[in-house]
């Protein structure tokens, strides 16, 4: 696999018009990736998800010479509420529509250049070597967005693609933005490697919803690096349900006073799907708050993982940090792994973490059936209530109702 990737990489460089400096950076990043390869279980952060083995079992030869086939169907456009749109095909912007916003208050820019940086993370090395567009979305100081922005990620309908994408979100002081990052994964048996840099200046507010819900055979990895300044706030929600394998990594740093980050998510799996959420919250200054709630609903032979860490610096007094993960196991063949961590160097803090897992309560099902519901309705009602605790953390009602619809949650019973 590594040799085929090397040949494809060389062909990739020949076909692109990168500058000499950019070629050198990309080559160095790819060399570093080639030396270490995909992460495996020998790495502590990947002890529950051996990506190297998963890729070997599913992908033989990567295709990075992907044609610009637009496999997006207009029927996939969300009609539940008004929204702005960006369409990204195989990591490249093909269309934008900010018709609900004041002109030039939200700007989209695209560059071919990558950062002059050699990473220590092999998946970032791979991303930097192969992504073709460095996409940036910037919200000007003082601007409050009117409608949500949906990012439609579209992929060519081919087999064994290797697609790398990079997006930067920059919110200036006292600005706000609502983003729904949506995958339309028509590709099959592909590896989708996404990297997001999110920067919130003083008093900025970002509400971000990462939704992977369409059933597909892809292997996906997403890394979000979030930096918050004074009195800024990030609400980050994950729906992890569609791909064969998906790992969402979020590194969130509260760098100035009174910042806050709420990270909530639902992993809903069946068959032999394998999903993981990994979070690191760095409390680097005092008077900051973080809240994390992750719930898993696992059926058949599926596997769910949550690794969460709260780090509190010695100067981050008056920190308020909360973290909880729970799993509902609907089959005896499911697997749930959790690794909650606290690393605290300050003494005036309020921090807690925990993790639980268990089966559905048959006594509760019996009670609901005695009130006239069928077994299926009773079971679904309990699952809805279990997941509903996370969904109620979503502060945008239209988006909350849309996600409920994706999960098939019927409030009638």
DSSP strand count? 19
Strand residue percentage: 35-45%
Q: How is the main sheet built?
A: 10 strands, mixed
Number of helices: 7
Oligomeric composition of the shown chains: single chain
Outline, from the CA principal axes? Answer: globular
- Order of strands side by side in the largest beta sheet? 2-1-5-7-9-11-13-15-17-19
Helix content: 10-25%
Taking all Cα atoms into account, the compactness measure Rg is 21 Å
Mean pLDDT, as a whole number? 92
Describe the structure.
The chain is an alpha/beta fold and 413 residues long. The chain contains seven helices and 19 strands. The chain has helices at 2-15, 20-36, 51-58, 122-130, 362-370, 375-391, 397-406, and strands spanning 84-89, 92-97, 106-111, 134-139, 149-154, 162-171, 176-184, 191-200, 205-212, 219-228, 233-240, 245-254, 260-269, 274-283, 289-298, 303-312, 319-329, 335-344, 349-359. It has a ten-stranded mixed beta sheet, with helices on one face. The protein has a nine-stranded mixed beta sheet with strand order 3-4-6-8-10-12-14-16-18, with helices on one face. The radius of gyration is 21 Å and the shape is globular. It starts with a helix and ends in a 7-residue tail after the last helix. Mean pLDDT is 92; it is low at 1-7.
Q: Could you outline the blueprint of secondary structure elements for this entry?
A:
Layout: H1 2-15, H2 20-36, H3 51-58, E1 84-89, E2 92-97, E3 106-111, H4 122-130, E4 134-139, E5 149-154, E6 162-171, E7 176-184, E8 191-200, E9 205-212, E10 219-228, E11 233-240, E12 245-254, E13 260-269, E14 274-283, E15 289-298, E16 303-312, E17 319-329, E18 335-344, E19 349-359, H5 362-370, H6 375-391, H7 397-406
Parallel strand pairs: 1-5, 4-6, 5-7, 6-8, 7-9, 8-10, 9-11, 10-12, 11-13, 12-14, 13-15, 14-16, 15-17, 16-18, 17-19
Antiparallel strand pairs: 1-2, 3-4
Helix pairs in contact: 2-4, 5-6
